[in-house]
User: What shape does this take?
Amino acid sequence: MRMALRYRGRATVLAIGTALLLSGCVSMAVDELPASLETLQVLRAADIPALALGSFTVSKGLDARSINIRGSTMHPAKGSNFAEFLGETFGTELRAAGKLDPSAPLVLSGELTENRAGENLSSGTASLGATMTLSRGGKPVFSKAYHAETKWKSDFIGAIAIPDAFRNYNALYAALVRQTLSDPEMIAALKRS
Amino acid sequence: MFALRKNSLAKRVFALASAVLAIAAMPQIVQAAKFYVDATTIAVKPEEKVTPATPKPVQILYEFQRDGGPNPKATKFTKSFIFEDLKASGGFSAVSETPVEGGAVLSIKFNNVVDPEALKKAKSDGFKTGLSFGLFGGTAVEDLYEVTFEYIPAPGAAPIKTIVYHKLVTTIGKVKEVIPGTQYKKADLAVRELVRQVMARGTNNLFADPAFPR
Assistant: This one.
């Protein structure tokens, strides 16, 4: 019995080793997401005023420096963190819609509260959360927590599973931005502020 | 019982070692890869060609996707091709990533559609091809593309939409069937041609739509 367990253990180690070999461990920076027609349409329809972006910070104790999948990591640009990347994604969407104005009195800031991605050789999950705050003249006028998550079917082969996981995680940023900017409460706050 | 397990383990170890060898042989296999793009179904014939008389500026929103999800690396790789082809189309006076006068927007989603059954077969065939170094049977894999063009002439206007389908066939090792289309030895050249053909068809479909501003 002990021998069988030992062999099973070795088989597991070999399987993991081979899975890693098949994938090749990589460390890659998260890629900037393009602006989308869906978000642009939402912003046009909402007819909100242009706004500036404030600081995007990381909630205390949250790791926002990397995401690890089977020994491979995705990280933000050098010297940055995923909260700043969220800010950049807001910037991309607002700029494309002509709604980004660094001198605008309305300022949107964010605090990243959740940052997670993982998979178990057959399925994967990732989630992202942030508290978004709208301010005018330095005074908060609206604040709300937003959350986006995704699930996908993962693969045994790392060369397929790792990029899949990174792509799914990456997509959450655009999803969170769209969710925030299409939220009727946020739109109402933007219009009355 | 233990003997059976040990035998099974030996087979598993052999299979895993074979996989590692197959991967080690990858450079030779990759060198044997060929790429095919067939324009037959989507080529724009001279008599079909439409060019707007008074081209207007347009804002471009472009994204390459894999199965509907973002693929930023491929977006970055193909973006310059998209802009080159839009400028060459003659249908727009200027193409920009930021808002333009008049508010026209063209969204292009270049989606690499994944067929789960085809992927399963490709993995199985690819493994066999790898084990035999491509000598005793090859693999032909189809990459399917569903490219959605959505043009909004002005804020609030109804979108003009067209979808173009295309495919890239990659062969590794000896493949018996004849693959239609032009053969490329480098993947980037094949992708460039595929994008060119898709863009020619997609933009012409838009220009031919009666709602497209003349």
Remarks:
- Chain B has two domains: 1-26, 32-208.
- Confidence is low (pLDDT under 50) at residues 1-31 of chain B.
- Chain B touches chain A through 32 residues (CB under 8 Å).
